[in-house]
Amino acid sequence: ANVLRETWLIYKHTKLVKKIDHARVRKHQRKFLQAIHQLRSVKMEQRKLNDQANTLVDLAKTQNVMYDMVSELQERNEDLEKRLTTLETKIDLLGVSLQALPGLITEAILKQQQRELARVHTQLSHLTPGSSEKSWTPPPLRRRKSPSTTPPTTSDSG
Fold first, then answer.
1. Please, which residues have CB within 8 angstroms of residue 32's CB and are 6 or more apart in sequence?
2. In this structure, which long-range contacts are made by residues 59-68, counting pairs with CB atoms below 8 Å and at least 24 apart in sequence?
3. 2: how many CB neighbours lie within 10 A of its CB?
4. Model confidence over 21-40: pLDDT tens digits?
5. Residue 151's pLDDT is what?
């Protein structure tokens, strides 16, 4: 409004009068330039406010995105903790099973040896008559000496 008023006054004091008052024209030209400067300043302030409003909107959107991401991370963390707990339980069960394994292996080997001894005993009792009344004991095991541990004989050296 000030810009329009000052342009009108400049026009009025230059074109509509018979004698031009240069001091008044310069005064209104100064006021006209000040009004233009004020208009530019106001527009700049409006732009700044619009930018700040847009920044606030962007900030709110970013905050919502961050909240969603944090929520998702918390859910993933809870899922991972559940999976970790399940794995720990399974590892504990495996540890218990592994501790019981030597005893089970020993028991299985003993049963297998007893069956083998019973089979050998029945075979021997069928081969020799009247031996079923006697208890059979296996012969003692003889260990063979390896050639590297036997002392050399005199026939080998001469």
1. 3, 6, 7, 10
2. none
3. 13
4. 888 888 888 988 898 999 99
5. 55
